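Notes from the 1:1 (GR / supervisor)

We went over the backlog. Supervisor wanted to see one worked example end to end before approving the batch request, so GR pasted a single chain during the call. The sequence is below; no edits were made to it. Supervisor asked that the structure be written out right there so they could see what the output format looks like.
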Amino acid sequence: MTAVFIAGCADDGSSGALRTQSAETASREQEEITEPETESDPEDWEYVGMRNITTMELVRDMGIGINLGNTFESCGDWIAQWGDGSVQSYETAWGSPVITQEMIQGYADAGFGVLRIPVAWSNLMGENYTVSEDYLAAVREVTDWTLEAGMYSIINVHHDNGWMADFPSDTEECMYHYTRIWEQVSDAFSDYGDYLIFESLNEEGCWDEVWNQYSGSADGKEKVFSLLNEINQTFVDTVRGSGGNNSVRHLLIAGYATNIELTSDELYHMPADPAGRCAVSVHYYTPPAFAILEEDADWGKCRGTWGTEADFEELEKYMEMLKTNFIDKGIPVIMGEYGCPKKNKDEESVRLFLTSVCKSAYDRRICPILWDITGLHYDRELCQMTDTLLRDGLMENLSAGAR
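Structure output shown during the call:
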């Protein structure tokens, strides 16, 4: 999701000193789980900070999560034109204050076990697709704070000003751009433990100009699925080839447009991974008339309420689709985003929708990660959830267990 809004940019003038990650965040108490094994670990385990556990076990240990949205993935030519060329000019461009350690600790205090940090790595990028050292340092600082708070961290390539739309027409150059990013990010985080996960893409793995799911035609479908499969394989090969802990790091693989139904298509394939440590990433914004629209659009009429029998049936259908096609086959699932706006929405419906999606996913051993931007569900000034009833409803799932 790229949910952009322009608001007053709070900037306290400092993002804090770069920190060094502790060797290993305190280990969490593990619950007994019986899901299928998804890997075969080496007999002699020599990776510091990397537990000898399956990705399915790791995903369960995450609990439920939240996104640090509209922050490090903020992008746009206007930022370079009107900003001061600093990391903070991007970090605050879409409405976020400069991130502090107190804000990150607040997510952990609220009960979240994982923070997804979307990143546009091409911001301030140099020649030959060289990632800005300052940008990398800022992302690493927030990642360190996340790990120090006892949470998992997911970092990805997120929208990145739209260059990935050129993959079908300029595949070689785009793949080089993509590979360069992951070579540098992998190198920067190679010694981090397994509380850090890399995610291949956000929702950009689809190309409607080649094949549109609503066209009624299959022309071009195989081409775009093959392209995404190639990108995801390149991601795994690049990370694994970087060495260090990345040889066995748990990885998150983007589904087709992160759409549940399309990711369940037979043309979508998980990449070959010698470490056997991959999970699939999907998003959930269904029905879009409620979960996306804040007002009527040419493609739909905004809904202000959610919770009919048909709504629950639709939710269960998609969660069962994930369970059948992935969980039951030993492939872990992380729902990297789910959510809805609050504008023009019934407050109780927002709570019901978010807690219901969270429960339906978590009950099936899927890790749900709430999409959030400044002032939506978490107050970055007060460092706490804006709705305690929503927070309590989400956290109830952690004690309820799974099927």
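Supervisor's comment: The chain has a mean pLDDT of 90.
Batch request approved.
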